[in-house]
Amino acid sequence: MDNEDRTEIKSVDWWTKEIGSRLSKKERHPLEMASQALEQHPGEAELLIITAFAAIVEECPQVCLRCLKRLKKHYYFSRPTINICEAIALAQQGKWPIAQILIEKQNFPISRFSLPPGIDLRWVNGWISKIKGWKPDTTRTARSKRFSSKPTGQKPQTKQAISTIDQPPPAIDPLARLPAQIPLTFTMSDETRFSLLKQTAGDSLKEFHLRLDFARLSLFKGFDDLLCLSHLDGVKHYWYQIETTRKVLKQFRGRVLLADEVGLGKTIEAGMVLKEYILRGMVERVLILVPPSLVGQWAEEIRTKFGLDFITTHDPLFRKDAPAFWSHPRIIASIAVAKRPAHFDLVAGQNVDLVIVDEAHHLKNRRTKNWKLVDALKKRFLLLLSATPVQNNLVELYNLLTLLKPGIFKTEKEFRAGYMLPGKPRIPANQEQLQRLMRDVMIRNTRALVDVRLPPRQATTLRIDPSKEEKECYSLLSDLIRARHKEETGRHRLALHHLLESAGSTPAAASFAIQRYLEKSPSNKWQDLYLRYASLPSGAKVKALFDLLGKNPSEKKMIFVRFSKTLDLLNNLLREHDIPFARFDGGMSGPQKDAAIEQFRAEKEVLLCTETGGEGRNVQFCNTIINFDLPWNPQTIEQRIGRIHRIGQKREVFVFNLATKGTVEDQILRILDEKINMFELVVGEIQSIMGEMTDEQEFAGMVFEAWVNTAKETQEKAFDELGDKILAAKKEYEAAKTLDDNLFGEEFEVV
């Protein structure tokens, strides 16, 4: 776990004092500290108030209004300072008339003691005077008449005072103070449990701590206090994720549609719910259904962040013994695999405590195998995750609702009659009524609520000219793969796929992959190609990498590599060039990985890492990544970027992609950049876009088919057609996002 995650939990009083100190000294950024305080104490009223004031001091009115919205939802306040704070925020937004109405409600002066610590009373009174003195501009024509966003500067006109001498207000006798006489009685809910604490004779310290934990856990009757928070490893969780988890457990009783906007951490929220249920002993059997390309990512995140081991449809047991695999208590499976005829009945026959479905908009049609599989599962809890649950029409909403609340409607016809306009399937007949219905099954946090402000990101692709020998070897390898592809099927084709990917890395990776292939499929032509690759130097891409490293040597950089031989090669070359680096790979233990990250943070300039580099750890002190090996799956590229371009990053992020001209990787980067401007998308959007293309075949498989099934002369056209499919998928995603924004807006946020 990184240093940030081990930060001591400080008290509300400590935070209030420190924030007040920053406010009074007018130094640094009090709002930043206030936001950190709310992460530790999300629902504390005093922190919400001081954060709201810190926001208007830094002229961030939207943040202020969000804090006040959370405050009013959970607490009743009659304090005039709340109205004044809200009035100032509205004035900063240019909403002077509303601000004026709020100020007029306060018919007595505000005192310094009613303000949060550090807030200057003169500053507050200055704003109150501005708001009271504001007047609309009456010089404009009626046609163009609008409220001004700033006060006019005119002095307020007041009636002639009766007396020209300022007189103090008449003295008012203070209210009598009466002592509170409220009898209090404390009764332990279960005396026998707490009597265990008294049995200390002869016990070891370990046994005493076990009894203490038992007594503490006995107090957790409800879900207000989450057990999972102290059991998360490397998870930077935020207040809205904590509140979402509580709401799923308490209000929705474990059956909910999590529809947060892209990039806000639906996976973290689902993982927190899962961990909480497991810690409380409420679930044992769990099935997580995801698109094929996300199986590995889910398994890695659940293992590293939540300490839970799941088997997946990538494991050997799945191929050896399907019935034994599907009876395992914890499974992460490709939904495309689970719904196949060979597995459908095996899966549907399982009794499962908790089912989680990622990209749940693939359940939008109740006539599909996807929907029928989830419906057939015997399940107690169900979490559906989708940033765009409705994509074409409101019937899709009906289909999701019937999974979460079976029997909520008798028929689809009843739903259409009550909630849909004839001939307009996207427009609800009664939007307010539909939203009331959805509040029982959906949470949708928006970026506006969370106030996600990421620094800019710059991406640069370096297209590298190969040497003559490299170019000839790659061309010959492609020809041999095309010829062999026509003969091979199934797993043998996967080997060809791997060969082509390795050739895009380095000659060392290519020669090793060909050598492994020759062990199973001896051939003179393949043997000759192996010898040619083995005789090549490190390659043009390696030279380009070290040229790049030399341009800004003091800046920390993460270099992502996919192949072990390339990793070893770069490891040795970095040593030869005397470049300080740390190595992070999948073969290292947890403590070794933590040590590598700490070395990178404290003293090394480069982190040489495999795909898992930085996963579950804070590496936001770095703002540059170099994609030396480019995966064919764009979602993997996006996951790499998400290691550093995420909430908490303060600096501009730089992404460098290295691709050899004339390779598969060169074509992939071309269409991703030209067709959808991939590197300008919000982290998480590429996953949604790819999900629109197909749930049967992974994008990497489409890339391979486009390369091996076309002649060299028509390859560019084949990739253009693939790019057109991606562009169409992007348009579908954007249309669905617009539809969902119009349907749901900010009505389903957790606050």
What keyword list fits this structure?
15 strands; six-stranded parallel sheet; seven-stranded parallel sheet; alpha/beta
Helix-strand category: alpha/beta
Summed up, the helix count is: 33
Strand element count? 15
Strand order of the largest sheet: 3-4-2-5-6-1-9
Shape: globular
The biggest beta sheet is recorded as: 7 strands, parallel
N- to C-terminal distance: 29 Å
Pick out the low-confidence regions.
1-6, 140-166
Radius of gyration: 31 Å
Average of pLDDT:
83
Please state the oligomeric state of the protein chains shown: single chain
Query: What is the share of helical residues?
Result: 40-55%
Strand portion, in percent?
Answer: 5-15%
Architecture overview:
With 751 residues, this protein is an alpha/beta fold. Strands 3-4-2-5-6-1-9 form a seven-stranded parallel beta sheet, sandwiched between helices. A six-stranded parallel beta sheet has the order 10-15-14-11-13-12, sandwiched between helices. Strands 7-8 form a two-stranded antiparallel sheet.
What is the topology?
Layout: H1 12-25, H2 30-40, H3 45-57, H4 61-74, H5 80-92, H6 96-104, H7 121-133, H8 191-194, H9 205-218, H10 239-250, E1 255-258, H11 266-279, E2 286-290, H12 295-306, E3 311-312, H13 316-320, H14 322-326, E4 330-334, H15 335-338, H16 341-348, E5 351-357, H17 369-376, E6 378-385, H18 395-404, H19 412-419, E7 420-421, E8 424-428, H20 431-438, E9 442-443, H21 447-450, E10 457-464, H22 468-485, H23 491-503, H24 507-520, H25 524-535, H26 540-551, E11 557-560, H27 564-576, E12 581-584, H28 590-602, E13 606-609, E14 624-627, H29 634-644, E15 653-660, H30 664-676, H31 685-693, H32 699-708, H33 715-744
Parallel strand pairs: 1-6, 1-9, 2-4, 2-5, 3-4, 5-6, 10-15, 11-13, 11-14, 12-13, 14-15
Antiparallel strand pairs: 7-8
Helix pairs in contact: 1-2, 1-3, 2-3, 3-4, 3-5, 4-5, 5-6, 5-7, 10-11, 22-23, 22-25, 23-24, 24-25, 30-33, 31-33, 32-33
